[in-house]
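Supplementary Methods, section 5.1.

A reviewer requested that the exact input to the structure prediction be made available. We therefore reproduce it here, unchanged from the version used in the analyses.
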Amino acid sequence: MPWKEPWCSAVESEAVVDPSEGLGMTLKELHELLGEPTDFMISSRSERQPMIWRYGEIEYHFGPSGRVWLVYTEDDDGNPRVLGLRLAEG
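The structure derived from this sequence is encoded token-by-token as follows.
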């Protein structure tokens, strides 16, 4: 089966959203764009803010500033694929 862009199934809306549009967004801004995440992860029990929001196969990683710095996924074989990267915080 050919590999397809994961955001095609990750976002359930009429409009297709390019995952890199989330770069630099806050939790609130990403929620307004994509809705509730299908899963989330925090770095430790003491952390209150999620560090990663997942929408289907797409992961949005939040940095210390509270903004998305990495958009990531893996193909069916587990090979990593960076969909967007923000080098500077702020």
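The longest strand covers residues 68-74. These observations are discussed further in the main text.
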